[in-house]
Design brief:
The chain is α+β, with helices and mostly antiparallel strands. The protein contains six helices and 20 strands.
Length: 328
């Protein structure tokens, strides 16, 4: 049995685990220590071999007097009513990530600390800037193109909310980009909502504008306060977040498009390209990824062979292959 300590935001979790594969996943993605001088906020036991591969993202919630359970095809969370002890039974590493997202989201809402938001986040000029939007709008792409800026999240942004404002911590819950495991908290500078568009532009929202849902899912990850209206802590935390969002939206601008955060694009020299009819396939042997591009994407890829190709030239030559819905 392995005992480790994981630091997430301002919280320390004591984790016991047997599986070597799941332990490697935690060491790769979380800030892991062999001992902790900080007080333990929660003890978590992780077990493998549960359930089956993911079929649906639906989560069944069972609430009893002493224990709360979250069950999905590939994981089961059992946590006591005061959120001090939990058991995660998972099918694989993917299930472990989602189970921990659900557990941690519920934990911080229970303690009235903050929220996990489905978005990416980068640091610019000492402030954190959150990017939300529908699936495919460019949340992860925006984070990727923001390098070498510090990337706080590419999937789930960790936000602490107090009466004095909101601060953002490095999130271990990543989709593609690895965490730097930084422990610095950054003040929230803006919340940007991305929309696919033929042109890159910013549109300022009025104070009373209501943001659209991120992608048909809850704007918040994991625990959803609306499911339990009796929980005053969750309602209060969500209310403070809404107040912070209104304040930020009234001062900042939305971002339309995803390539505004960088001046130049660079094509990595070790990638291999295969063209089949009007589609392109890009193979990256370093990251073991395969990316499929349409005709417009292929033209952009060809232009990137030029050194320091500016975005203006890409915009001039790479028109979308299919019409896109205009922004109202």
């Amino acid at each position: 049995m392995n005992k480790i300590y994981a630091k997430i935001g301002e919280h320390t979790f004591q984790i016991t685990i047997d599986s070597a594969n799941l332990l490697n996943y935690l060491k790769k993605n979380f800030c892991i220590k062999s001992r902790s001088e900080a007080p333990i906020d929660m003890m978590v036991h992780i077990k493998d071999g549960f359930g089956s591969p993911l079929v649906t993202y639906d989560v069944n919630i069972m609430n009893t007097d002493r224990k709360l359970k979250f069950r999905r095809d590939d994981y089961l969370i059992e946590v006591d009513s005061d959120f001090q002890n939990a058991t995660l039974s998972v099918f694989n590493g993917f299930a472990l990530k989602h189970a921990f997202i659900n557990l941690y989201s519920s934990f911080i809402v229970y303690h009235n600390w903050g929220l996990l938001i489905h978005s990416s986040c980068v640091v610019e000029d000492g402030k954190a800037h959150i990017f939300s939007g529908q699936s495919g709008a460019g949340k992860s792409t925006t984070a990727r193109l923001s390098y070498p800026r510090q990337i706080l999240s590419d999937e789930a942004t960790l936000v602490k909310i107090t009466p004095d404002g909101a601060t953002v911590f490095d999130s271990p819950f990543r989709s593609e980009l690895e965490s730097m495991n930084g422990e610095t908290a950054w003040p929230l500078g803006s919340i940007q909502v991305l929309y696919q568009s033929l042109k890159n532009k910013r549109v300022r929202l009025e104070k009373n504008t209501r943001p659209a849902p991120a992608d048909g899912q809850s704007f918040l990850l994991g625990a959803q306060p609306e499911r339990n209206k009796k929980d005053s802590r969750a309602a209060e935390t969500a209310g403070r977040l809404r107040a912070d969002i209104r304040a930020v939206f009234s001062k900042k601008q939305y971002i339309l498009g995803a390539d505004f955060m960088t001046d130049y694009f660079i094509r990595k020299p070790n990638c291999e390209t295969v063209q089949v009819d009007d589609e392109w396939v890009i193979l990256n042997p370093e990251t073991y990824t395969v990316t499929k591009l349409n005709e417009a994407g292929g033209r952009c890829w060809s232009l990137l062979s030029e050194k320091n190709c500016p975005p203006a030239k890409l915009s001039q030559h790479c028109k979308p292959a299919l019409p896109m819905k205009p922004i109202s």
